[in-house]
Amino acid sequence: MFTGIKTYINTNSHEILLSLLQHIEISVIAAIITIIIAIPLAVVLLNHRRAGEFVLQVASVIQTIPSLAILGLLIPFVGIGTIPAIIALVLYALMPIFSNTYAGLTNIDPLLLEAADALGVSKRYKLFRIQFPLAMPLILSGIRIGVVMIIGTATLAALIGGGGLGTYILLGIQSNNNAALLVGAVLAAILALVASWLIKILAHISFKKLGIGVIVLAILGTGFYGVRSLITPKTETITVAGKMGGEPEILINLYKDVIEQDDPNINVVVKRNFGGTSFLFKALASKKIQIYPEFTGTVLTSLVKTKSGINHDPVKAYHTAKTAIATQHKMTFLRPMKYQNGYGMTVTKATAEKYHLKTISDLAAHPEFTAGYDPDFYQQEDGYPGLKKAYGLNFTKVRTMEPSLRYQALAAGKLQVADAYTTDPEIKKYGLVLLRDNKRFFPPYQGGPLMLTSFANTHPSVQKSLNKLAGKISTSDMQEMNYKVTVQHQKAAVVAKEYLKTHHLLKK
Amino acid sequence: MIRFEKVTKTYANEDALHNLDLSISAGELFVLVGPSGSGKTTLLKMINRLVVPTSGKVTIDDENVADMNLEELRRHTGYVLQAGALFPNMTVEQNAAIQLEALGWPEPKRHARILELLKRVDLAPELFLQRKPSELSGGEAQRVGIVRALASNPNLVLMDEPFSALDPLSKRQLQALVLELHRELKTTFVFVTHDMREAIRLADRLAVIHNGELQQLGKPADILADPANEFVRDFFDDPVARQRFLKQVIDSGFGRSISVDDQYVALKGSDTIFQWAALVQQTATQNIRVGNRLLEPVDLIDYMATLK
């Protein structure tokens, strides 16, 4: 376990560091915006107690809305990425910072306020030299609560493509990778503790120094962004995003390498683990991203409406998908790679040899087999129910189980047959055999780059570069690469480059 | 000269002050005395416009305070509150110099002025300048409060129950300090208290306020000699205190021993405080003999000031 985490950190140290910095960036921006809103608001409402109480109520109501719901609600208005994440974080942290500032300012001994008035000090002097300093302990504890909350909630930003440490938590949950999960969770926790501690230290610094510090930080921050935007060459940036998991990450890195090699003026930004199908599709439609790898089967079953049933011939399926998505969504679906990543039926090598199994039809003769299925596969019409009819299968014992467990069960002899994704690295890991879909029951799932037609028309060179990958990468190539990334924890970028070099698609 | 003309203040349909006329002469140490809720503090706060009258007007040297520049008025008026009311986030020096800073005095001049005043109220500057209010005793905090009020050389000093939270000893010392400072500065002082002994001890003239109305106005001795009504009589003459009064004064060590032959007015334990006050005024020697102890008027008043 521990060595697993260590290798994971070693192989991904650069990305982890980037995510950490991104997490800090999102949190700091959200915290600053919250402070800029909450504190002046509290000051203004100080003389309007009724409105103050009202805002307090509203802020606590916002607090009770689950953060995921806020993120969901914001997508139609501000889209995806860091902006809605920051808005949601600001809405969240508003309550503790506002209520503490308000409480701090309203709970000052009235005798002291009377003294300030009676001595004839100016309003500004009273606010900055008397009210704020006296309320400061409460304000700072509000900021502390707010910042810790922001850092914790910012892990959810990953759900809407905002990046940050949540990427690792999400990745960990979805790919059952505890190392990634722990890296994300532990770093977020440490970050929260460090921030809380720093703010505690701030409590002992005078108000004046605090003000100077904030101004210096603001100047440095603007300077940093200014310089960064100045030194960044004025090239075009294309964002290529991928779905969750190792395989999409390899694909987007392949895209990046071929595009950047052909046109050095294009800078490709890859966003891995960006989200699910519908999320990526919306991101593409709203031009938040420019390209993402999609499968023919997914286009046909989920993204377009087709009159006829799904054609099971891969070439025809691609053409149907391409035409339909072009007319229905004004998107261009480039030619897919060779490999197919769809459902398949798998058995161990020993079982295959013992019973002479080569095709799915061969399974019909073995109703005594125990079968293990992914719950989705067991229920969906294009899964086991359809398959059963098409091939006349009739297993006496059928179990549904976690996708990753069914391979182990298969290897341990607890199952004789299971469903699989054809490029799953476990097929290589456990030496399994995929049975041929001789009746072409499963829709073809071939991966190809999807982009808006408007983008494709203005970027013919990108199309040309990506088309170099069309028809390349066999199913076993993909299994091999997935094995390296998901099981051996090698970097997707390195694995992608290696493949392109050995196949002479990339100059050395 | 401060003048209240037909001043009424109404809170939630109830009069806190009712149609009140009063004038305070320049240079006077004027005490507003009465039980809590009588309206005396409301009256004081009308002078620097912390409270605005519902009707009537308040003038200083014939100028209506409502027409004055508020910050100017307040920056040139000393104000002493209960327990000092020092700002806990500032040092003694910053607290004391707050009005000077508002008036735009340069730092060296401010420093010199605070130094001078701290010495005057018996606080060693080198020990106290940089202290925070949390490091001061109640008496020390109120001395700083007085320094703060006097720093800008005000023409008028307002004091709102400044010593009510202090122990009897600090209270007496500070009352003595106020008397000394008033004598030196010849500035108008308006002092609010609910403690009748404090009022008698400090006042050039005092006004007894009750239920938002003026009950009696005059010199302490006049009021003691001739209480205007039942309220004033009861307010100053606490029957329990009276019964034990002389015994307590003597037990507390006031007065001095004399021989039986000396000629002094005798005071009976059953007499009221007003009769004692009348005796003090009438007798040429102004001394009172009780058995073989001789009490001077100041002994009585000092003793009264130690009572709660």
UniProtKB/TrEMBL annotation, chain A:
Native source organism of the sequence: Loigolactobacillus binensis
* Domain of life from the UniProt record: Bacteria
One Pfam annotation, family name? OpuAC
**InterPro entries in the cross-refs:** ABC_Gly_betaine_transp_sub-bd, ABC_transp_perm/SBD, EgtUBC_SBD, MetI-like, MetI-like_sf
Q: Does the keyword Isomerase apply?
A: no
Official protein name in the record: ABC transporter permease/substrate-binding protein
Name the UniProt key words of this record, in alphabetical order. Answer: Membrane, Transmembrane, Transmembrane helix, Transport
Transmembrane stretches, by residue range?
26-47, 68-95, 179-198, 210-227
Gene3D superfamilies in the record, alphabetically?
MetI-like, Osmoprotection protein (prox), domain 2, Periplasmic binding protein-like II
Question: Can you tell me which family this protein belongs to?
Answer: Belongs to the binding-protein-dependent transport system permease family. In the C-terminal section; belongs to the OsmX family.
Localization? Cell membrane; Membrane
How does the record classify its membrane topology? Multi-pass membrane protein
Report the main location listed first in the record. membrane
Taking every annotated instance into account, which residue ranges of this chain make up the domain ABC transmembrane type-1?
20-199
UniProtKB/TrEMBL annotation, chain B:
Q: Where is the ABC transporter domain?
A: 2-236
Q: Please list every transmembrane segment annotated in the UniProt record, as residue ranges.
A: none
Keyword presence, Nucleotide-binding: yes
Q: Does the keyword Nucleotide-binding apply?
A: yes
Record-linked Pfam families: ABC_tran
InterPro entries in the cross-refs = AAA+_ATPase, ABC_transporter-like_ATP-bd, ABC_transporter-like_CS, P-loop_NTPase
What keywords tag this UniProt record? ATP-binding, Nucleotide-binding, Transport
Spell out the molecular function terms from Gene Ontology: ATP binding
- According to its UniProt record, which protein family does this protein belong to? Belongs to the ABC transporter superfamily.
Protein name (database record)? ABC transporter ATP-binding protein
Question: What is the source species?
Answer: Loigolactobacillus binensis
